[in-house]
Amino acid sequence: MKTGPPDGYPVDPDDTLTTQRDEDIVSHQSIPIPQLGAATALVQLLSENPGLPVASWSVGEFALHGHLHDGGFGALGRYAGVLGGSIRPLGNDYPSGGRVVRAHRLVAMWRDIPVHVDVVLPVAADAAVAA
User: Fold this and answer.
1) Phi/psi at 90 (5° precision)
2) Cα–Cα distance between 79 and 47 in angstroms, integer?
3) Which of 112, 102, 116 lies closest to 67 in space, CA to CA?
4) pTM, whole model, 2 decimals?
5) Which pLDDT tens digit goes with each residue over 73-91?
């Protein structure tokens, strides 16, 4: 009867497949991870403000980009209440789903990370909010 590790598993504990040298571990830990700062900022934002409206998020190399699908201008305003920053129309009006819409973007900073949050609104609703 065979004893020891199953076939295909290294027997030698110093085998390079199963162990790493201390200097290899240190060198892997010192490699910068560009998205880590933005990802950490997003976790902090949502953890510290659990009542914020649901958004879809993209984590870039040095920035966060959110898109609100529901809640309209009020939802964007709730993000502005937490993040500060400014809300501006983004680009031109365009047709979508049989109506004319306009994108609006909140531009802010959170923990030294640029944050953009967008919402697309029907132009009529946008004009009513602005009035």
Assistant:
1) -120, 105
2) 14
3) 116
4) 0.70
5) 999 999 999 999 999 999 8
